[in-house]
Specification:
Strand order of the largest sheet: 3-9-8-7-6-5
Number of helices: 7
Largest sheet: 6 strands, parallel
CATH topology: TIM Barrel
Number of domains: 1
Bound molecules: zinc ion
Order of helices and strands: EHEEHEEHEHHEHEHE
CATH superfamily: Glycoside hydrolase/deacetylase
Radius of gyration: 16 Å
Shape: globular
Helix content: 25-40%
Number of strands: 9
Low-confidence stretches: 10-22
Distance between the termini: 16 Å
Length: about 190
């Protein structure tokens, strides 16, 4: 892992209002750390990642963006948080609404650790949803995760389709709401 650098992704300034400064201290002198913070504008970049869109972030050689889907669920998310903290790395979590409802304290813990929070629908249905169902799932997921955060503005306008089951209609809906559809560059 030597030489690998990580970047943290933060939402655009309209969402976070500059409330998080990337001036993080790190007790581990050998940590991977964060090389820089990218701010993503949903209007300029509504679709991101090479797997589905053939287009990715302007990363420098050695830079990696870490994202985690489906939680938060103890004890797995806690283990991820410990590993990230050990390496002084910030990541982006695409959370499922029903999991946020069940684990609101964990949602806030992730936020307090300086990570970025996006959403991943309410119920994590693994098929290409009709447009009306997709909109309901998107909105319910945002409402649930936002409710777990004491400051809804802490929620980034970032969304990922469960199983990457995207549709053009749902992508159009995300865009109309000012949300970014994140696919992946590399699947775990
Ligand atoms: Zn998922």
């Amino acid at each position: 892992m030597r030489g690998v650098r990580h970047i943290a992704l933060l939402a655009g300034p309209l969402v976070l209002g500059g409330s998080i400064a990337p001036a993080w201290s790190c007790a581990n002198p050998y940590a991977l750390g964060v090389s820089r913070v990218l701010q993503i504008d949903a209007r300029a970049m509504p679709l991101v990642s090479s797997h589905d869109y053939g287009f990715s972030l302007p990363l420098a050689p050695g830079e990696v963006v870490l994202t985690f889907d489906d939680g938060p669920v103890a004890p797995y998310t806690n283990a991820v948080l410990r590993a990230l903290a050990d390496q002084c790395v910030r990541a982006t979590f695409f959370m499922v609404g029903r999991e946020a409802n069940a684990n609101p304290a964990l949602v806030r813990q992730i936020r307090a650790a300086g990570h970025t929070i996006g959403t991943h629908t309410q119920s994590h249905l693994l098929y290409r949803m009709p447009a009306d169902r997709a909109a309901r799932e998107i909105n319910a997921g945002i409402a649930s995760v936002g409710a777990a955060l004491s400051t809804p503005r802490a929620l980034a306008p970032f969304f990922r389709f469960p199983g990457l089951f995207r549709t053009t209609e749902a992508e159009r809906y995300l865009r109309s709401r000012g949300l970014i559809s994140w696919s992946v560059d590399v699947d775990s």
